[in-house]
Design brief:
797 residues; mainly alpha; Rossmann fold; Serine Threonine Protein Phosphatase 5, Tetratricopeptide repeat; six-stranded mixed beta sheet; 37 helices; 6 strands; 66% helix
Amino acid sequence: MRRLIHEIHRRSLWQVVGLYLGISWGVLEAVDGITNTAGLPDWVPGLALVLLLIGFPVVLATAFVQEGLPREGGARSGEAGGSGAAGGDAMVPGAAVETVAADRAAAGGRAPTSAAGGDVLSGSATRPAIHHRLFTWRNAILGGIGAFALLGLAVAGYFVMRVTGIGPVASLAAQGVIEPGEPIIIAEFENTSSDPSLGSVVTEALRVDLTGSPALTPLAPARIQEMLRLMQRSPDERLSPALAREVAIREGVRAVLEGEVASAGSGFIVLATIRSPESQAALATFRRTARSPDEVIDAIDKLSQDIREKAGESLKSIRAAPPLARVTTPSLEALRKYVEAERAHGSGDERRALVLAREAVALDSTFAMAYRKIAALEHNLGGYPTPAVIEAATRAYELRDRLTELERYHTEGFYHLTVTGDVDGQIEAYERVLAIQPDDPGALNNLANALITRTRHEEAAELLRRAVSGPGRRAVAVANLAIALALLPDPEGARAMLEEARREYPALGAWLAYYASGIALAAGDYAEAHAEAERLAVMPDASPAFRLVGQAIAARADAGRGRLAEARRHLAELHARARDLSHGDVVQFRHEEAFIERLFGTPDAFRAALQAGLQALDSVPVEARESHFAALAGEAIRAGDATLARRILERWQAERPAASQGTPFRETQRVLGIIETAASDPARAAAELEAFRTERRCPRCFGFELAALYARAGQMQQAAAAWEEFMARPESVWDVGLIYALTHERLGEAYDALGDRERAALHYARFAELWKDADPELQPRVRYARERAAALLAERG
């Protein structure tokens, strides 16, 4: 043992080991980095480690041999001229032949020489021993290079087989079984484990993790429910593997993912199979194990990665995706609650879904997807952004880095919709979603809504047509398409689409009554709009706030046809009932009152309603005031009350300092400046408003106000054209009905001033017909319009 330790020290093996380990660590770090950045297979770092472990004894042997073998008495074979082991001179690589020559010289021999004209040493006795010939540094280095060259060839072979569809590592896309982005139906996983709900958890978690993969597109639950209805089966029926295959055949989907969860001691085994629905042949099979319930989410994550790799997604893309526990929750119980909430929402029980989602965030306060679900459910139940919606949407936005890329952009879009009111932010977020997943039904619908806000109705209608005809068709997209068609305008198409929604989604009575009232207002059918609004106001399945929205629309329908007293009665009832709601609801309904009073009432009544809204705003949480400030300031601007609008804007900026950096604030400030310019130079203000609409890409924004500016400037031809455009392409279905009659009155006056008797008479007569049952205080305007129409027609005849 002493001699062994002595030899190790003498041969400097410690230094060789240290140097080799240092180089090996650097090689492994480089391989690991290249694997992650270049998307190499997972086995590459492991195989590199095996090669380095194999090389370790080779390097040690080489270092040992290159110093020579010990002789009896401790002399080394390389000793010459009396130098002994005690000398301890380390040999350098390549010294083995010189050592043999020295030994032969000491024995009276001579050094080997080459035969004349030859390359071979003369005689076998002159050749170095075999271990000296094998264990050289040159051979060790060449062996290492060769080993890693083989590793490179193995990786290249793996990718060749994967891309060309050859061998067991071939992807399904390369084999032509599926196309990139192919729809796939995820069947409910069979559950034979001791946990009765684990099958549903695995199914939903896989759906979440596979969503956004460029290789596969899980068919949305809403689309599957629609197919079940067409098959005359319950939309809530469990999607067993057999039923999933039947749906896939009907829908033309070429792959179904099915699986099983089983117990394995204290843990679980998760099996998954991609199967052809027609032949039922297994296209690929996967297996992962969780040793305990705490490892279930990690096992699902690895299973999802296996599926995505086999489908054909690049390894680089798979590794770039955050782990499932981060984009969902590390808590299995929280994930279980979230899955139950998703299923309750899918079955139409939004209140139970909301309770379950809130239980999920109680278990994990960083569960971003659950907060997003809460915000959406609160919005659906309330009808518009309530403080509860804003709180949940804000929390989800704060946690958006814990979401998948698609979910993150969805969350950003919803946050801008409900909290900041930043339409540009919504458009950008949903366009990013569609860049990743072009048929995402939620993004198609929400982007269309944002474009409708920008009065880009044709683009919105096209997106909604894609949404209702593609995978994941949803009731809200069908209803929104009806609204977009009403704005084009295509009233017949709008009514037909609404009836289609009523047949397919009878449970959504409240929402469809809301949409029906808007479509009727856009067509100038005040009686139908009023009837739908009254129906919404008493619907038992609608939330209290949503029922009050029905009262507000009924007030609009009455005001639009000149029944101002009846409209005010609706508003008074609305405000009395709104006291039991949140202060945000009160602000919303005061804004509604100000809107009606601006058009039909007195300036004092308008200001009183707006001041009441500002007073109610005092009780709204500061972080929930953004959209309210924008609405109230916008109402003051449209009324031409620059002083009040400026006061609201100053308060907005004081309470929300970051508001001055936001798009809604800057846009409101810009329009306010235009209105202030109108006091002295309406023609310039009209030109500035036209420029603003162009820059904002909102071709019909402020159409009624623009026409009024032209009229104030005496530019009646432009005024008439602007009012005609407003009638043909309104900003909103719910607003145009309220201004419909007034626009006819303004057009009568404009064409009268231009000397166009026929058109003037036509619009005067239409106005008189719409307001024939108006309140007595408004009848003088009706009589004037009727008499003026008759006089103009007489002059023409």
